[in-house]
Amino acid sequence: MFFRIYFILAFICCSLAKAEILNQWSLYKGSGTEIQDSGYAMADGVLSGSAAWVTDDAQRGTCIEFPASGYPGLDIPGYHAVQGINPFTVTGWINTTDSNASIIGWGDPFNDEGKWWPNRGKSICVAVSGDSKLRVDVFGGMKATQAVINDGQWHHFAVVVEENDTIGEIDIYLDGALQTDCNTETEGTEINIEEGQAVNMGWGGWSPWFTGFEGFMDDMRIYDEALDASGVQADIENKFVNIFPQTGQTEVALDSSLDWQTTDTSNFSEYSVFFGSDPNNLTEYTVTGDTSFSPSGMVNETTYYWQVQAEEGGEAYSTPKYSFTTLPFAPIIVSSPEPQYLEQSQTAQFSIEAENIEMYAWFKEGSPDPLSNTTRISGANSDTLTIENVSVEDEGYYYCQGLSAGFDPAVSDSARLMTFRLAGHWKLNSNLEDSVDENIPAATTHGGVINDPNYIANGIDGEGVEFFGDNRPMIIQESTDYFNFYPYGFTVNMWVKTDDFQTWRMLMAKFDDPDNQGWFISTAANGNQTPFYIFETSGDSQLWPGINLADNQWHMVTAQYDPAPDAEAYRLFIDGELIVENSAVAAGNLPVNDQPLVIGAGMQDWDTFFGMLDDVRIYNYPLSKPAVAQLFFDLKPDAEPFCYELPEYDLNEDCKVDLQDLSLIAGEWMVNNIMPDTL
C-alpha cells in the first residue's frame, strides 16, 4: 500500500515582477516519454529508466510510477530552476512506502574533487528520510518533520524557504498544517544554490545520501515565490492544470488556442473564459464540453490576458489571471532543422518553422554565400531545403535565415548532414595520422598526438602503439564537435593486446566527467574484461563481456550503438562475435560533450592504458553483425570460422561455400547415385 504526498518548496526569484507558476509538470498525458511543462519557463522533461504511466489511480487518475529497479527518473535536461538565495516554490503529489529516497533535487552537491562538505547549501533535495520523515536537505544542513509520511495514506506537504533563509529557518507544512516540531541539523547553513545537476525527480543518483524513489508522483510544480499558508491551501485545492499559455510566455503564435486541463477529481461541464488585451476589461466567453478556446483577431507584439472560471457543487473555482505576448512583427524561427544521417545517394531534407518571413535563404557553414537551386538542390529560398543524391562532399552544417524588410534576419540553429561511413581510421603504422581519406578522398581527417609515442613492430597489421599508463594518451585533434555524431549511431573497433589489465584504465573515450556525458571502453581488473559504458540522460548503460582478454594475444574489441527503431540497442563484440546487448534510447537522446576523442585514455590524460593498441576505427553508424565479423577475419584469416547465418549450400558449416562443400555433394551423389537437378 502506498501513500501520497503533496509537497511545496517555496522561494521567490527577485528578478520577477510577481509570483507565477514557473514550472508545472502536470503528468496528465498517460503515454509517451515526453513530459510537458505548462509553466512559463516551459522546461519540458523526459521519463527515463523504468518510470512508467499509471492511468487508473484511485485518487489521482493519471500519474507516474517509479519502480524499485531500473533507475526510474523524471529528468529536466539542462534546467537548473532557481539559483542563489532566491526563494521558490515546488509542489507535487507523491505516494510511497519508500524511505531514504530522493523526491526532487537540483544544484551542485559536489566540488571539483567530488567532495560534498565544501559545497554546503549549494544544492537542495526533498526526500523521504531513512526514518520515514519528510526531509529537506542542503548537504551540510537539514530539517525534517517528526511525522512519519510513508504510512500508507495520502498526504500533502509544503516546504517554504524565504530569501536568505538558512536551513533552520525554513517552514514545512504537512496536510496544510505548519509543522512546528522538527528536527534540524546544522541549522545555520545558508541556502545558496549553485548551478550543477539539473532538476531531477525520482532518481537519487546525484545525491550524496539518498537513493532512488519507489512509488508514484503527480502534478509537480515550481513557483517563483514562497507561498504563505493560504497559498499552500489554494494549491491543494487547485482544480486546473496544464495551462497554456502561462504568464510570461512570449512569441505566442497568433493562431494559438487557450488550453487547460482539470484534475481527475473535477467534474466541470461548462467554463467561463475571460480574454482581452485590457486586464481590467476582459470579454467573457462560454465554453461547453471542451477545455480549449481559440480567440480570434490576435495581432503581433500585443500582451493579452485570460482567465478560466467554473462552478462545481455550488462552489466557484478560478485560475489566476494569465498574461502572454504574441509574436513580434520581426521574423522569428519557431523550430530549427534536424540533423540528417543517411546513406550516400539518398535525399536529405532540412525544414524550419518560422513566422513573419518574407524570404528564406539557406547556407552551408563555411561559406558566406547562400545556396542556390541546382539539379540536385531545391528549396534554397523556401522553408525546406532538399539535397538529392547526397555525397561526402555535401557533408557539413546547414542553417536558414528568415528575412523581412526592416528587420535583422532570424537565423536557425545549424543541422548536420553526414553520410554513413568510416569516420576515422588510425592504422598506427609509424605515425598517428587518420587514413580515412585513403578510401574516402573527400573525408575530413583527424590526426592524433602523443607525447613521445612508442611504436611497436609486431602490431596486428603492421606496427602499433604501446601505452604505459603514464598519462601519455593519443588525443585526436579537432575532434570535439566532429565526433559528436554518436547520439545517432556509431561503431568503435580496435585491436588490443596486454597480459595484465591491472586496474581501471581506458582504451578509448568520447567522455566528459563529472557530467557523465558520452561513452568509453575501458579495462577492468575484475575478470580482465573490457566493459563498454554509454551515458544516457539519467545514468549509464554498462556492457560487460565476461571474457578474460589479458592473455598477451591480439583481440578485437567492438562497441556500438544502434538507434534504429526496430533495434535500439547497445552492443559489445569480442573477436567479431556479439557477446552482450542492452536495450537503448531512441536516436538523438544521448547527451553530447565538449571533450576530444581520446585513444588509450579517458578525458585527455587520465586512466591511461597499459598495453598495446592497433588499427583503431570509428564509424558513424552501427555496422551489421556480419560486417563486424568480417573486420575480424580480414586481419585473422586463419581464425576458427563463425558466422551469424550460414550461407546457402554451406554443407560443412564453415561459413563459406567452396570446393569442400562441392566434394560433399559429389560424395552423396556417388553413394546414392542421385543426379543433381542442375546437371
TrEMBL record:
Pfam families cross-referenced by the UniProt entry: Ig_3, Laminin_G_3
InterPro entries found in the cross-reference section: ConA-like_dom_sf, Ig-like_dom, Ig-like_dom_sf, Ig-like_fold, Ig_sub, LamG-like
Keyword Disulfide bond in annotation: yes
Keywords from the UniProt entry: Disulfide bond, Signal
Annotated signal sequence range: 1-19
SUPFAM superfamilies given in the database record: Concanavalin A-like lectins/glucanases (SSF49899), Immunoglobulin (SSF48726)
All copies of domain Ig-like, residue ranges: 360-401
Name of this chain's protein: Ig-like domain-containing protein
Organism for this UniProt entry: Sedimentisphaera salicampi
